[in-house]
From TrEMBL:
<dbReference type="Pfam" id="PF00903">
    <property type="entry name" value="Glyoxalase"/>
</dbReference>
<dbReference type="InterPro" id="IPR037523">
    <property type="entry name" value="VOC_core"/>
</dbReference>
<keyword id="KW-0223">Dioxygenase</keyword>
<dbReference type="InterPro" id="IPR004360">
    <property type="entry name" value="Glyas_Fos-R_dOase_dom"/>
</dbReference>
<feature type="domain" description="VOC">
    <location>
        <begin position="2"/>
        <end position="129"/>
    </location>
</feature>
<dbReference type="InterPro" id="IPR029068">
    <property type="entry name" value="Glyas_Bleomycin-R_OHBP_Dase"/>
</dbReference>
<protein>
    <submittedName>
        <fullName>Dioxygenase</fullName>
    </submittedName>
</protein>
<dbReference type="GO" id="GO:0051213">
    <property type="term" value="F:dioxygenase activity"/>
</dbReference>
<keyword id="KW-0560">Oxidoreductase</keyword>
């Protein structure tokens, strides 16, 4: 599988570097005065300075739970997702939208999920699957 690229707005590059680098553990790539690249689980994420960045609205619905739209994140194997969830749960500075939970329990595509906001209000979802074959199961 090849990595995807996503450019997203942030209000402050220093707080963004700290969040993605220290909280999520992303390697930091190239940068300038107006953007910075991160390696988010093998994908190229480019944070672009936009001081007027706004919070995503919680106007989507998945498995009966309101979710923010838009949002982005990563699909992980369960052991990696569990390590990330534990690291985030151990911190007191996480802006939780949805704490770790299992969705579609006992159904095809069963997944663990969690939602957080970065310091600019971008909503992130991290999903965990026992097998990547379950990602598109129906």
């Amino acid at each position: 599988m090849t990595p995807f690229h996503l450019a997203f707005p942030v209000r402050d590059l220093d707080e963004t570097r700290a969040f993605y680098g220290e909280v999520l553990g992303c390697a930091i790539g190239r940068s300038s005065a107006t953007w910075v690249d991160f390696d988010l689980f093998g994908h190229q994420m480019s944070a672009h300075l936009r001081p007027q960045a706004a919070d995503a609205a919680r106007d989507g619905k998945v498995d009966g739970v309101a979710v923010p739209i838009p949002h982005f994140g990563a699909v992980l194997l369960m052991d990696e997702w569990e390590r990330l969830a534990a690291r985030l749960e151990a911190r007191s500075d996480i802006d939780w939208l949805e704490r770790p939970m299992v969705r579609f329990q006992g159904e095809p595509g069963e997944q663990a999920t969690l939602f957080i906001r970065d310091p600019s209000g971008n909503a992130l979802e991290f999903k965990g699957f026992r097998s990547l074959e379950q990602v598109f199961a129906h």
